[in-house]
């Protein structure tokens, strides 16, 4: 964990100094107004959004995996991300002048309802292999995405939808990202309830025998996941696979006890997003690739490797 913390500090420093506009330490030490404006209005907000989104998505993934009891489930493979986008589109037509917070509430409600429906669907099907559950989730997400695109096309707001298709931190500037701070209390709550989520992952019977309210704890977990997904989609856009890759890699080395592994999951999620963001900003410098593409590419490859290992 110490090495992961040091890696996070190093990545944060690189992220702060990287961008199309050059900012040197000498200019900062000389109190250059231009350098400090770039740092405070763009680089620091972007860094905070990156870290909080990475932490939030990875923790959401591990909570969802314990609720569903499947290692391949996360918001992108259970329809949560697509439902959040649909919720935002509905808010645009029903309440055209709605604030960002109101749009987030729509995204939250749709994400929660879609996740709940996904759990009800898989609870009624007997799967021969655990790998089939995320496959069903991807199909479920595709259906929701198609509904969202049809809805956007019918109401002539297809262009508005593009902003949430791919996660992109280049839009993050001071005054337009602060909603992402809501992820911080979500992380605190997740850590407080980490032991209960661990018990939840042992199954309904085991949870009942240990005196845990299974339905209430699962509902709380889904709510934490929905708030995080809604805040990240409305602020950044959709970023897939972070909640799948990091929890699995951490579980391989540290086990399943969330009280012990949740800080590692959080650090890992932040580091993965920072690495993907830095790569996306360097590969065609001074332009940048949206993080939805880099994270989707890296996460997708690891997802396939995990599925192949699971098949074996």
Commentary on this structure:
This protein has helices spanning 2-17, 25-29, 33-68, 80-94, 100-123, 132-154, 158-165, 183-192, 194-200, 204-209, 214-235, 242-254, 258-282, 291-311. It has 312 residues and is mostly helical. The protein is globular and about 65 Å long. The model has no long low-confidence stretch (mean pLDDT 84). The longest helix is centred in the N-terminal third of the chain and has 36 residues, at 33-68. Helix 4 packs across helix 5 (100-123), helix 4 runs parallel beside helix 6 and helix 5 (100-123) packs across helix 11.
Query: What's the total count of β strands?
Result: 0
Q: How far do the termini sit from each other?
A: 30 Å
SSE pattern, N- to C-terminal: HHHHHHHHHHHHHH
Classify the secondary structure makeup into a structural class.
mainly alpha
Largest β-sheet summary = none
The percentage of residues in β strands lies in under 5%
Overall 3D form: globular
**Segments where pLDDT lies below 50 for 5+ residues?**
none
């Amino acid at each position: 964990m110490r090495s992961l913390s040091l890696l996070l500090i190093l990545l944060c420093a690189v992220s702060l100094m990287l961008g199309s506009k050059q900012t040197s330490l000498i200019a900062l030490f000389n109190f250059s107004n231009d350098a400090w404006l770039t740092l405070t209005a763009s680089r620091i907000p972007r860094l905070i959004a990156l870290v909080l989104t990475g932490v939030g998505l990875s923790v959401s993934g591990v909570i969802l995996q314990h609720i569903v009891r499947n290692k391949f489930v996360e918001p992108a493979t259970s329809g949560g991300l697509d439902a959040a986008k649909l919720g935002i589109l509905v808010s645009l037509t029903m309440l055209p002048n709605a604030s960002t917070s109101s749009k987030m509430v729509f995204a939250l409600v749709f994400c929660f309802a879609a996740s709940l429906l996904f759990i009800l669907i898989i609870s009624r099907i007997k799967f021969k292999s655990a790998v089939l559950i995320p496959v069903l989730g991807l199909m479920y997400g595709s259906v929701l995405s198609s509904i969202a695109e049809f809805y956007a096309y019918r109401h002539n707001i297809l262009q508005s939808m593009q902003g949430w298709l791919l996660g992109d931190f280049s839009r993050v500037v001071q005054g337009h990202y602060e909603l992402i701070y809501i992820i911080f209390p979500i992380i605190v709550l997740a850590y407080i309830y980490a032991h209960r989520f661990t018990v939840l992952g042992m199954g309904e019977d085991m949870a009942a025998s240990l005196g845990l309210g299974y339905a209430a704890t699962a509902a709380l977990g889904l709510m934490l996941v929905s708030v995080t997904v809604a805040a990240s989609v409305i602020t950044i856009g959709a970023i897939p696979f972070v909640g799948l890759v990091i929890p699995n890699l951490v579980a391989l080395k540290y086990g399943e006890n969330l009280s012990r592994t949740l800080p590692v999951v959080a650090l890992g999620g932040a580091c993965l997003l920072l690495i993907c963001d830095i790569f996306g900003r360097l590969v065609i410098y001074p332009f940048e690739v949206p993080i939805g593409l880099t994270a989707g590419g890296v996460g997708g490859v690891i997802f396939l490797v995990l599925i192949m290992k699971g098949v074996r």
